[in-house]
Amino acid sequence: MAFLFGEAGASGIPMYYFQLVYVVGFLAAVGIGSLAWYNSKRPPGWEDAARPDFIPDVEGQDGEGDSTDSK
Fold this sequence. Notes:
Helix content is about 50%, strand content about 0%. The chain contains two helices and no strands.
């Protein structure tokens, strides 16, 4: 792996571009994973938990939204 980074540094590509790709990818994975987790069916014991306001309500494949939140 150090060989690849050494070659990238020698070719004139700054190393922070590679680090930026990892950071942006990690943040995207955390964000998308959080949205998917909040929109999934609730685990046992969390059925009555309130959904945060900033999480959008996404309908499932069967056309039903999350029925635990009634506004």
